[in-house]
Amino acid sequence: MGHPEQLDNIVVAKVGSSTLVDSKGALDRAFVADLCSQVAVLSSEGYRLVIVSSGAGAAGAERLGLSSKPSDVPGIQACCAAGQAVVTETYAEALAKHGLTCGQVLLTREGVTDREGYLNARNTLDRLVEFGCVPVINENDTVSVGEITFGDNDMLGAIVSALIGASHYVVLSDVEGLYSANPDVDPTATLVDTVTSVDESILAIAGGPTSGVGTGGMASKVRAGRAMLASGIPMTICLGRRRDALIAAVHGDGRGTRFVAPAESSRENARKLWIGLAGMSRGSVIIDEGAERALVEDGASLLPVGVIGSTGDFSEGDVVSVFSRAGSLIGKGITRYSSDEIRRAMGLKLDVLSRFMPLKAEQPCIHRDELLLF
Question: pLDDT (tens digit, 9 = 90+) per residue, 245-259?
């Protein structure tokens, strides 16, 4: 069994709705109690735990006496408002039996997209962990709207892991991990043990949602895995209801899929991680093969000459996504050109650009220090 080398080893455990609720769609308190027992074991070994938990909508529907979750946005948000208290109470009671306390943290994408909000959230989580408290985190679904949500708690967990510098991110899922094909239709499908890079082949086998309970599927978990590879934080997807699944994942001896960056890769700095993970893209730029090689192989900045297209309406200083000609997401960065400027400048070298856009004469489209590559 593995043991931490220092007391500040932080493990983020994400639990999805499909794992957290029972067959009737209600919050499974027995599962929460078992999970908290595992948290207590790991805490006794020196790990510090952070839980990213879904389940507010299901718990709220149960508390409000509804037979099923509403489908309209105000109804969903009302259920989440009622259910967030239930989820926190359930964790608090289960952790208290092991002498542990918890604190509820509700985050919004809009809040962490703002750099100051991101740092405030990090400081709060750092202090909670320092106090020996187990933060229980969820998206603040009562105020979030479609355009500014995390999309699913897989990415929320990834952002939290990067934000606090976690040593491991564990996704407790309703599947064992990433398979070479859909095991429900292909009996020859095998579990992928390790992923060191997310390429087109990995994205192709990720598939769609596995259940109708949660909002995330394997595709969202692979996106989170890609973010963790960039962060240098190992991530494990495993079957959450397997006995001692969290403990086994942390110790490295459980069944599942582990995303781990190659040993020679370096962990990106906190600002790049904020740009790439928390920052909301306001648009995108498409680059040619030469620019792609320069970014990926040489660590270069993105120059206008390598840009062949753009989408969206963005301003200088906004976060934009960078796509290859083939349509693969290469990274995200802070643009030094507006969308109008990049459409005028794309394909041109800086010396040519200086003749009619002198203020951009020495400016790359995205500087390498403000670009997170996936």
Answer: 999 999 998 899 999
